[in-house]
Amino acid sequence: MLSKLIPQLVFLAIGLVVTTGLAYIMNTNYVPSAQNMSNNSNTATSTNSTPVTQTPATTYTLAQVATHNTPQNCWTTINGEVYNLTLWIANHPGGEDAIISLCGIDGSGAFNGQHGDQPNPAKMLASFKIGTLK
Amino acid sequence: MTPKITMKEIAPIILRIAISLVFLWFGSQQLMNPQPWTRLVPDAAIAMTGLSPIAFILFNGSFEIVFGLCLLFGFFTRATALVLGVHLFLITLSLGLTAIGIRDFGLSLATISIFFHGMDQFSLDWRIWGRWAQN
Fold first, then answer.
1. CATH code where residue A106 lies
2. Which pLDDT band, with edges at 50, 70 and 90, does A90 fall under?
3. Which chain B residues touch A93 with a CB distance below 8 Å?
4. Of A1 and B48, which is predicted with more confidence?
5. Across the interface, which of B40, B46, B62 has its CB nearest the CB of A22?
6. ipTM for this prediction
7. B58 has a pLDDT exceeding 70
8. Do both A78 and A104 map to the same domain?
9. What percent of chain A has pLDDT over 70?
């Protein structure tokens, strides 16, 4: 029993060392892309890379939001706040269509129905905030 | 004429390769563009590890790439499937009862089923010590 377990444990230890090494190399060489920087145009980044959201002062009308109704330029309004979800479309775990369907419209019903009582989606959404609805 | 490999023997091979590709795809996405994934990191994970969200995602992506490759080639299949299955199950717990959480719950159980099955005929394990394990 032990003779079979030891190689498995050694393998796991080596795997974790390789994982840590790979992560260290990736982290050392990590440079935020221009796309990511523009994604966070309304955020400030502290020295330890933890995003800190700043409250934007801009207000928009529903008509203004409605002009950003394509996957390439996707704004939506949820519960009185305005969000630019363009860069989230490709990364949404629930699929692109769920976000694309909100572009240019009031997405409150769809968001609250799917994620209303979940903290993580609300936290994610907050990071895309660009203003409030007039 | 009897076939060399039966459908029952093919099943675990397909499952192992399919699940490994899922981990490799998600791992590569995290390494190539970690920024969007940082929004999925629970605050408790950051507090416990002391890593920045970017470093946490890069570690997670590296973990899925390294062990995903081991699963793809069937190298230490049992140990690999166990750690990946538990890893995905913990992610499922953090996601809660959502559509994505339910999907990941199914994937984690599929990975655990590979752990229960162990090596298959197309795995490296079979080539390396299949005969030894059978004896």
1. 3.10.120.10
2. confident
3. 40, 100
4. B48
5. B62
6. 0.77
7. yes
8. yes
9. 79
Domain count, chain A: 2
Same domain for A87 and A124? yes
Neighbours of B128 (CB within 10 A): 14
Beta carbons of A20 and B59 less than 8 Å apart: yes
**Are A23 and B76 inside 8 Å of each other by CB?**
no
Q: What pTM, to 2 d.p., does this model score?
A: 0.63
A86 and A127, same domain (yes or no): yes
Chain B residue with minimum CA distance to A127: B39
For residues A92 and A78, membership in a common domain is answered with yes
Tell me the average pLDDT of chain A.
78
Q: What are the residue ranges spanned by the domains of chain B? A: 13-133
Total number of residues shown for chain B? 135
Q: Choose, out of B22, B51, B52, the residue to mutate when testing the contact with A (most A CBs < 10 Å).
A: B52
What is the pLDDT averaged over residues A88-102? 85
- List, as one string, the DSSP characters of A1-47: -HHHHHHHHHHHHHHHHHHHHHHHHHHHT----HHHHHHTTTEEE-T
- A73 and A28 together in one domain: no
pLDDT tens per residue across span A30-58 = 766 544 444 444 433 333 333 434 344 58
Contact between A8 and B83 (Cβ < 8 Å): no
Q: What are phi and psi of A79, to 5 degrees?
A: 50, 45
Q: Say if residue A87 is in the same domain as residue A121.
A: yes
Q: Which amino acid is at A122?
A: A
Structural domain harbouring A6: 2-53
